[in-house]
Structures are given as C-alpha cells and as structure tokens.
Write a structure and sequence with these properties.
Layout lengths: L1 H9 L6 H7 L4 H16 L2 E5 L1 E4 L28 H14 L3 E4 L9 H14 L4 E4 L2 H11 L3 H10 L15 H8 L5 H13 L4 E7 L5 H18 L2 E8 L15 H14 L5 E2 L3 H4 L1 H7 L6 E4 L20 H10 L3 E4 L6
Parallel strand pairs: 1-8, 1-9, 2-3, 3-4, 5-6, 6-7
Helix pairs in contact: 2-10, 3-11, 4-5, 6-7, 6-9, 9-10
The protein binds ligand V47.
C-alpha cells in the first residue's frame, strides 16, 4: 500500500481520500520531505507575511458553536459592539504604523443593521483607500444574506460596492456534516460555505480557506475537507491560501478529552501541502500553532505565517497566547533565525 503511495508522491500524482488518510501512517520526515519539495518549487526559500491588523467589531452572536470562546452567547462574559468611530480610531493608529491590510470578522449580531456592518468598510475605504479590506467570512455572508433577505450573490455585490476587497477563510471549520452538526449546528452548511466562495471567485475576487482541526474530527475528515476545497479551486482558482487552524481548548463547550500532538499538527500542515496541489500557499497561522511550530512548519510545506495582527481576540479567548500580535522585528528575526527569507507581501501575494 505504502509503496504505491510513495510512487504517487515521487511522480507528483494527485492524491485521493485514501491516499491522504494513509499519508498519516508515514513518518513525519518522509511526509515533510515531499511537502518541502513542493513548497520550494512554488515559493523557494521565502516565508511570507504581511503587516496587518485583525479587528473583530462585535462578539454578540446568534450562533452557538461549541468550540467558540469568543462569542458573548457562549462563555465570554463581555459582550461588546464597537462604534464606527472606535474602529476608525484603531485603523488610523495602525495606518500610521504602515499596515497594508485590515482583516475584519465579527460574530453574527442580529441586533445591528446591515448598514452597521457595511458602513465600517465604506468609511475605511473612503479614508484609507490604500488599505486592503479582507472581511466577512462565508459564515457571516450566510447570516447577513438570510437576515436581510438577500441572495448570496446580491450580498456579495453589496460587499464589493462597500469596499470589501477579499474574503477571509473563516467559518469552514470541518465540512464533514456529522462532525459539523456536532460542533457548530445551525451555522452555514458546508455546501453553502463552498457555494459562497465559488460565487465570490466568479466575481473575480480572491479568498482564503481555513480548516479547524485537532478537536473531535478524524484524520479522514481533514482529507475530505481538503478535497472539497480542491474541487472548487479546480473550477475557480480563486483561493490564495489554505490555513489549517489548530483547535484551542479553553473556555468553551466542546469537551475534548484527548490532547493533540505537535507531530500531528505538523503532519496535517505537510499533508495539506501534498493534497492541495492547486493552492499556491499554505499558511501556518502562528496564533493557533504558536510561533515556534509555525516556523518549523515552514520546513514541512507551509510558506506563510499570516501577519503582525496587532490584536487578536478569537483564538486568545480560547487560550492562544496571541492577544497582542507580534512586531515586525520579531517576525523577521524568527524567519531569518530559521534560515528563511522574510518576504513582506500584499494581501493577494502579488
Ligand atoms: O472560523 C474559533 C476559528 C476562525 C477557535 O483567512 C478557533 O487568512 C481555534 O478564520 N480554536 C476565525 N480556532 C479566524 C479565521 C482566520 C484566521 C487567520 C487567517 C485567516 C485567513 C482566517 O477562528 C473561525 C474558527 O474556525 N476558531 N474558535 C478555537 N477555540
């Protein structure tokens, strides 16, 4: 069985569900060797990152995802909704530091209007036209479309009219319907998450795709998730990067009894590089993997770290040590120290 898998890897053949699941049985060095070969062919010795700021304007959410520690309807005791003035103040400060991107995602707040959501983008675009707005996950698009009586396509057009440049990859979680039903019942379905990204790409826009792993899913569910993304990418070529998000276990209602190993996380990142043969970039998101593992992952298929972030609330609510982001100097030092070439990118890797 493994001989034919190695043969497929040697010949750069496309891997199927069984191949992807069997890859986990190989040792980490073998998987890493093949992932690194592809990573170097696509991205050389570069490690990409950008100067960005994550903003989460509200944590009031009508959804009840078990893994979430950020939502005020779960265990977070501090509900908030930022005013547009507060948000502009944040952007102004970050603009002075030279950020090129704001990454704005919120909870699904049915107490504020569609214009509250859209006005944020319009005002940022008017005042800071040089800043790329990466905003609204497909889960938010689904919520806003249903709540305001629009089709997905109409909702995406409204986002574009108001200044959204690209769509982040949040809300994908795990596509397997049984697991999804257990961890985030009621949230956008897998089929609709994929449909929203496909429609967005058909409007000539780019997006990213995430996967939340290391909780109750099995290895085969991760591979299934990657294959569903690969199928859309074959049709649209609109995804710029895949971001496997390591599950953070604190302050939430998903009672995961087992502990996840660094080797399993590294294998998953490397396997994603091997499965997603049509994705240009794999991001090891330092917030959920820790910066040390994210740097190591650069030798196992990843080529990106996300960015400086500045302030992080979603994962740090669940235990990640990322609340204050990272400085440019720190990121550069980590990359150089590991023998890679730090490469500051724009949001679309152009
Ligand atoms: O969809 C929530 C995840 C995501 C937890 O597109 C958790 O470039 C770990 O999507 N443990 C939002 N993760 C963040 C996100 C993202 C982050 C960085 C870059 C990009 C990109 C997108 O955060 C949610 C969910 O999957 N999340 N709770 C948790 N306990």
């Amino acid at each position: 069985m493994h001989n034919s898998l190695i043969e497929k890897l040697e010949n750069n053949e496309r891997l199927n569900l069984e191949d992807g699941t069997n890859l986990y049985d190989l040792d980490i060095y073998t998987i890493g060797k093949y992932a690194d070969k592809i990573r170097r062919k696509l991205n050389g010795n570069k490690v990409f990152y950008n100067l960005n700021r994550h903003i989460n304007p509200t944590n009031i959410c009508k959804d009840v995802c078990k893994f979430c520690a950020y939502s005020a309807s779960r265990k977070n005791p501090n509900p908030y909704t930022m005013s547009h003035e507060d948000i502009l103040e944040v952007v102004d400060k970050e603009d002075k530091k030279g950020i090129s991107e704001v990454h704005i995602v919120s909870a699904h707040n049915d107490k504020v209007s569609l214009d509250w959501y859209m006005g944020i983008f319009r005002k940022i675009k008017d005042k800071y036209p040089h800043i790329h707005i990466k905003a609204l996950s497909a889960a938010e698009v689904d919520f806003l479309a249903h709540h305001n009586g629009y089709s997905y396509s109409e909702m995406l057009d409204i986002m574009i009219e108001n200044g959204v440049d690209s769509m982040p990859g949040g809300g994908a979680e795990i596509f397997d319907e049984k697991v999804r039903n257990h961890i985030c019942k009621g949230k956008v379905s897998s089929e609709n998450w994929l449909e929203i990204h496909k429609l967005w790409h058909q409007k000539n826009k780019k997006s990213t795709a995430t996967m939340l792993f290391g909780h109750v899913e099995e290895r085969t569910h991760r591979i299934d998730h990657m294959i569903r993304l690969r199928e859309i990418q074959d049709k649209t070529n609109g995804f710029t990067a895949f971001i496997p998000l390591v599950y953070q276990r604190y302050n939430n209602y998903l009672k995961v009894k087992t502990y996840f190993t660094g080797v399993e996380a590294l294998k998953t990142i490397a396997i994603s590089r091997l499965m997603l043969d049509n994705f240009p970039h794999i991001k090891a998101y330092w917030v959920t993997s820790t910066i040390n593992l994210a740097i190591l992952a650069q030798e196992f298929g990843a080529d990106d770290l996300d960015g400086t972030i500045s302030k992080e609330t979603i994962q740090s609510s669940a235990g990640a040590k990322s609340a204050n982001g990272m400085s440019l100097e720190e990121i550069n030092n980590h990359i150089i120290g590991a023998g890679f070439e730090p490469t500051q990118r724009d949001s679309l890797y152009s």
